[in-house]
Every structure is written in C-alpha cells, then in structure tokens.
Amino acid sequence: IRPRLTIAIDGPAASGKGTLARRIAATYGLAHLDTGLSYRAVAKALIDAGAALDDEAAARRAAEVLDLSALDAGILSDHVIGEAASKVAVMVPVRQALVAAQRRFAETGKGAVLDGRDIGTVVLPDADVKLYVTASAERRAERRHAEILSKGGDARLEDVLEDLKRRDARDMGRADSPLKPAADAHLLDTSEMDIETAFQAACDLVDRHRAE
Ligand code: CDP
Ligand code: CDP
User: Fold this and answer.
1) 23 and 196 in contact (C-beta within 8 Å)?
2) 19 Cα to the center of ligand 1, angstroms
3) Which ligand ends up closest to the CA of 117?
4) Residue 36 CA to ligand 2 centre (angstroms)
5) What's the start-to-end Cα distance of the chain, in Å?
6) Atom 6 (ligand 1) nearest CA
7) To the nearest 10°, the Cα dihedral for 173, 136, 122, 3?
8) Cβ of residue 163 lying under 6 Å from some atom of ligand 2
C-alpha cells in the first residue's frame, strides 16, 4: 500500500494556491484544507462578538473551539475578513491552536493537501511535496479584482493592490511563522502562467515524487 501522501502549498494572497490545492486534491483523491479559512473564522468570531482584533484571550478561545470541518468559505471569503485574518494571525496562541488542529486534519485519512502560509515551514515540515506559489503583486491584484467584480462586488484595482501589498508585508514580516518558502519547496511563479499550466506543473512534481 502506498503511504499517506501529504502536500503543502504556500504563497501570498491570490497567487492561485487555493485553486491548485483543490484541483490536486481532487486529482489524487486527497482531502483538502484551506488553512486561511481557519484564521478568517477566528477574525469573524471576534468581529461578531464586538471584540478587538488584538484581543489575545478572546482570539485564543475562538481558535481553540474552532471546528475545521464546519467552515463556510462563502461567508468567510470577504475581503475585509482577509485583512482582519492577517491581524489575528500574528498572535502566537492563535497559531498554536490552529496549527494543532490543522496537523490533526492532515494525519487522518489517506492523505491531504493543505494550503496557506506556513504549511511547508511549520504545519507539515515533513510534507512529501512542497510548493511555493507566487506571482507579481500586480497580477495577483488583477486576479482578485476580477474575482470581486465577477461576484457582483465593486472595488478599485488600485485599492485591491494596496490591500494585497499591506497584507503581504504583515504576513512576511511577523515574528511567528512568517510567509516564506521552505528550504525544500519548489517555486512556481504563475505571473505569466494560466491556471491550467500551473496545475500541470504541480502534477508533474507530485508524479515525480510518487515515482521515487
Ligand atoms: O488561494 P489564493 O488566494 O492564493 O488564490 P486563488 O483563490 O486560487 O486564485 C485567485 C484568483 O486568481 C482565482 O479567481 C483564480 O482563478 C485566478 N488565477 C488565475 O487566473 N491564474 C492563475 N495562474 C492562478 C489563479
Ligand atoms: O485567500 P487569501 O490568500 O487571500 O487569504 P487566506 O489564505 O484566506 O489567508 C488569510 C490570512 O490568514 C492571511 O493573510 C494570513 O495572515 C493568515 N494565514 C496564516 O497566517 N497562515 C496560514 N496558514 C493561512 C492564512
């Protein structure tokens, strides 16, 4: 029997990591966890409770009671919640609780694809395949902007770009588990790549690992 396959996909906002993670999971019959949703859910819990986004005790409690199997991507996909998520994500107790739950998820079943910021570096340092997906801030902003418009929303491209840059800086600059490629991650720059080409490149890496 083939051992459990674990795949770590990290990268900045709107690099395409979520789309890749979902497609890889479907192709190889693995479970998929979008770990960004767990940080978004903690942020939303604080907002709903009227708590400050730096209220560490409230954030820790929200992270500890979170049920990863009951996260609603529709409700949490909001752009304001993404920004709030990056604020709660700097707090050590929040990360400790969420990382523990994410590891439990990866350890069950036949294998899993997790996508986020610290999967290859912290959550699953022994993942079989690690991918670090990037694209220029301008391309990522164009993609996010198109996504907002396609959902009937409204935003200026310049504002989306500013938001992305601010969130990247917070994610790369924090002390605990900053966004950075693991030493053994494969880099995939999708600036000039459509999602199909990126998916093929990712599958090649997974197939190469499985042939070893
Ligand atoms: O998960 P992450 O925030 O990294 O990105 P995503 O939600 O997978 O992708 C953001 C948007 O960019 C989606 O609408 C994708 O279809 C699009 N995209 C693209 O057009 N070309 C790529 N190579 C990657 C993503
Ligand atoms: O989809 P997008 O890339 O815009 O954001 P996300 O993956 O939903 O993540 C929202 C925020 O949660 C990020 O900006 C990070 O601050 C935080 N996050 C994290 O710290 N660690 C992870 N493994 C995933 C997300």
Assistant:
1) no
2) 6
3) 2
4) 4
5) 15
6) 16
7) 180
8) no
- Pairwise CA distance, residues 183 & 74, whole Å: 34
- The arithmetic mean of pLDDT across residues 154-159, rounded, is 95
Three state DSSP letters for 13-63? CCCCHHHHHHHHHHHHCCEEEECHHHHHHHHHHHHHHCCCCCCHHHHHHHH
The complex scores an ipTM of 0.97
pLDDT in tens, 185-203: 999 999 999 999 999 999 9
Question: CB within 6 Å of ligand 1 — which residues?
Answer: 11, 13-19, 143, 147, 190, 193-195, 198
Which residue in 112, 121, 114, 116 sits closest to 181, CA to CA?
Answer: 121
Question: Across the chain, what does the average pLDDT equal?
Answer: 95
Ligand nearest to the CA of 17: 1
Q: Which value, to the nearest 10 degrees, does the dihedral of the CA atoms of residues 89, 150, 143, 161 take?
A: -60
